[in-house]
Amino acid sequence: xxxxxxxxxxxxxxxxxxxxxxxxxxxxxxxxxxxxxxxxxxxxxxxxxxxxxxxxxxxxxxxxxxxxxxxxxxxxxxxxxxxxxxxxxxxxxxxxxxxxxxxxxxxxxxxxxxxxxxxxxxxxxxxxxxxxxxxxxxxxxxxxxxxxxxxxxxxxxxxxxxxxxxxxxxxxxxxxxxxxxxxxxxxxxxxxxxxxxxxxxxxxxxxxxxxxxxxxxxxxxxxxxxxxxxxxxxxxxxxxxxxxxxxxxxxxxxxxxxxxxxxxxxxxxxxxxxxxxxxxxxxxxxxxxxxxxxxxxxxxxxxxxxxxxxxxxxxxxxxxxxxxxxxxxxxxxxxxxxxxxxxxxxxxxxxxxxxxxxxxxxxxxxxxxxxxxxxxxxxxxxxxxxxxxxxxxxxxxxxxxxxxxxxxxxxxxxxxxxxxxxxxxxxxxxxxxxxxxxxxxxxxxxxxxxxxxxxxxxxxxxxxxxxx
Length: 468
Ligand code: UD1
Ligand code: CA
Prior knowledge:
The chain is α/β, with parallel strands linked by helices.
């Protein structure tokens, strides 16, 4: 393999020090979640696919939460003490940039929808024509808030006018700066110190680099974005909501193309890292989050919420069920209205029915808990029948205790299994029992007081009443 030449080195700067004024939030907008992960992480996940040598993130001095969101990313931080504009923020990266060469992509932390392909195009265009700057632009029907692209009579880009500085005629320009630029490192380093803050906002605009470079005979080219959507900047909560539905829809479309049926994609929320197998059907109003993996031919009905769940193939999750951090085996049915709370390992062909809550339990193949039960800290074998209303009393006020139910046990309805306790293989527990001691294999345990029938009691009571 040949070593890349110095000039083909690629770097990225992410500006993330802004104040998020329009967001009206206590915390920086960049840590607000978008499709389940902090907004800032989206752009960094894309940069990670670009093969860049250095990624520099510019933070404000109160950006501890942004830094926290980015722990685990291989980035270098620089601090912008005072928020004096995007040009000033870029200047803060100079101490690192001055040791580098090649191309540097400068992006904003609040434009998370950009495609990796578009970012790659900026780098290749910069290298191919050896431009000083490449600017991504887009024609939008709603240019408000974006920097407008002013072109010369030869249609070459001349300068960018920010919203606050636009004249009424310039406001009508629909070609805008999408907020993604790629510089030749040496040109950026040379001209960046010449930026001025003589504008309506009194800020150092990175966007003034275009005019500066043109004035000094530099080569600046524009590249069109693939769509308006990918350039959306998030400056307000409305824009966050719009970006959220746009991204959710993109994720749903991706899975539909992989053979998943999603009946109403506008109402289904899939996080970006979720995986869904072919011929799985997802009904409206389903939320699937985190690292959830769903196998082929599963059915997820409305109102279900899955977080970090693993479903093998042919699993049915019926109406309004919640599964968190749990694994469900092939052919198992969960719900309606069931709750696998956390750390459950449910084997194949199990039935977890309505109003059954399971926590930190292992359930063997073919076992049924069809109605109204709480199974916590339990190890349950194969082909066990858990009657309606069974409760594992796992908590004694101090400790969580374990209930063991071996293969082919039958637990009658409305039984309390007071842990720690073991029901051995093939045993029966009579309905309504409070089991405090282990039950031997094949035995029948009855643990309830005997019934007394008082003959003629009702009539005797009526007579007493008449006398009064
Ligand atoms: C910016 C561009 C505008 C473009 C638009 C695209 C400038 C002057 N304007 O406007 O041309 O059309 O993005 O979305 O660049 N930031 C800092 N330090 C600062 C100021 C900002 O780090 O001092 C960061 C912010 O955290 C943010 C990004 O830079 O992530 C962009 O800042 P923002 O105020 O949102 O710029 P826009 O007004 O959207
Ligand atoms: Ca912005």
